[in-house]
User: Which sequence fits this backbone?
């Protein structure tokens, strides 16, 4: 992991519904630098592998996209 | 520190708070659920590994009973948690339970390691949560 991967950040916001609604039930890796999703998977292993394969450096952000038809309990 | 609830479905909003977690290899923002029903702060193993934690080598094993009654086996470790909002920033050393079980995909900010350090106001009408650091917060310098 290099210095670029740990670049300084300001305020951090949770990933929004506008992004996550497209990936229900998936683990999502988002590039804060490129403002786009770079990894999606049924589990974190798959999502992180995809993100690593993208070659995108800079700060990543991880979030789980809930299934939109499920209420939590 | 004021965080809006996050929409996770049609008409469904949850108190999800982004934390910048720091480990030996770097940092990773992760969105976790403020979970007053969880005794521990729980993290999926893959994110911990990405931060440089050798999960398999961690010596302390913890058993956690999930909300659905499942017994989840975790490993105990410490990470620096970095919370930022506006001009405010707090960093502390958090006790974290790491699990390899894939049933846990979203981090949970439970009592030990997180909730034990904050005064928390859940504002349902305004769909927001306010976190006020307590005097017991084990603050540390930002990495």
Assistant:
């Amino acid at each position: 992991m290099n210095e670029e991967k740990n670049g300084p950040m300001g305020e951090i916001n949770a990933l929004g519904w506008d992004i996550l609604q497209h990936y229900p039930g998936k683990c999502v890796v988002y590039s804060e630098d490129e403002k786009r999703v770079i990894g999606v998977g049924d589990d974190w292993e798959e999502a992180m592998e995809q993100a690593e394969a993208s070659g995108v450096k800079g700060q990543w952000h991880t979030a789980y996209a809930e299934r939109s038809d499920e209420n939590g309990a | 520190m004021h965080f809006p609830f996050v929409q996770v479905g049609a008409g469904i909003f949850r108190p999800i708070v982004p934390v910048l977690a720091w480990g030996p290899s770097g940092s990773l923002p992760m969105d976790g659920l403020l979970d007053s029903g969880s005794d521990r702060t729980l993290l999926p193993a893959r994110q911990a590994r990405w931060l440089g934690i050798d999960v398999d080598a961690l010596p302390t094993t913890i058993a956690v009973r999930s909300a659905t009654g499942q017994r989840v086996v975790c490993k105990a470790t410490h990470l620096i948690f970095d919370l930022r909002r506006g001009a405010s920033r707090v960093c502390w050393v958090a006790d974290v339970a790491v699990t390899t079980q894939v049933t846990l995909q979203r981090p949970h900010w439970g009592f030990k390691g997180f909730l034990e350090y904050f005064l928390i106001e859940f504002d349902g009408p305004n769909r927001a949560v306010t976190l006020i650091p307590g005097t017991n917060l084990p603050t540390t310098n930002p990495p």
Q: What stands out?
A: Chain A touches chain B through 34 residues (CB under 8 Å).
